[in-house]
Design brief:
This protein is of the alpha/beta class. It has eight helices and eight strands, in the order βαβαβαβαβαβαβαβα. The protein has one domain: 3-Layer(aba) Sandwich (Arginase, Chain A). About 25% of the residues lie in helices and about 15% in strands. α1 crosses α8, α3 runs parallel beside α4 and α7 runs parallel beside α8. The protein is globular and about 55 Å long. The N and C termini lie far apart (about 40 Å). The model has no long low-confidence stretch (mean pLDDT about 95).
Length: about 325
Amino acid sequence: MTDHNQPLGGNAMPRFGGPATMMRLPAQDSAAGLDACFIGVPLDTGTSNRPGTRLGPRQIRDESRMLRPYNMATGAAPFDSLQVADIGDVPINTFDLKKSVQIIEDHYQSILTHDVIPLTLGGDHTLTWPILRAIKDKHGPVALIHVDAHADTNADMFGEKVAHGCPFRRAHEDGCLIDDKVFQIGLRGTGYAPADFDWGRDRGWSVIPAEACWFRSLAPLMTQIRDRIGNAPVYLSFDIDSLDPAYAPGTGTAEIGGLTLPQGMEIVRGCAGLNIVGADLVEVSPPYDMAGNTAVAGAGLLFEMLCALPGVPRTATTPRSDIVF
């Protein structure tokens, strides 16, 4: 029997009851004593098309109520080896995006005074920039696995340098990233010029467009990425719009031809063994998520992130099947 926090089970309390926390875990006011924490950033002030991601953290938590503590595919049981809790939301400024960015950075600097790995429920992608600034203060520049339909390296949007299309250019300018260990997976769609995805390439980043992923397992790709990252600290940023709208319609800037949900899971599971120091799941917009499927996907991917963290043993390398096919 472990003394670590456990999600509230469905036989102790019906799934539609209990605390409104991620996986119905205990809530804490701070990250003290935790190995990993879930934290929400209810932000959509940086969106450029459909809003609603301010409601994302709450909806992801709600749809996480069906998650159980054991990963049947990988054998990971994160709550047996990590102390995990939900530490609530960052109190962003609803009316001032620039102030919100500073609030987020300050909040994460406080979280990271503890030896904890933050897993963030977004919120729009603007939030990743201030988190990376706080991560840099603790860990130095990091490798980055960025899963997204969009490069998010705009110089500005409507003349503003702070927006959900700009976080990774800002992070690069602030020295947050190890350029030869940055990987952007799933980029696609229309653009303004043929070289729209080349800004990162010109700085040594590796860009894997969605078309290169079609009809393929991404497990071999993740093997190559792990080899190239090595022991460097790494941050994982997963924009739900990297998935095809068939899997994740509830997002602000949907693009056809995206990754499948199993491919998204392969990417996250393929991060196991890396020195993950933080991760986020962003751009879930509940107003466009009528059946809740996007938030279900987001919640499941966040659990997979927890299962991939350092210190979580995995007892299975491949799912067992009793039939050869």
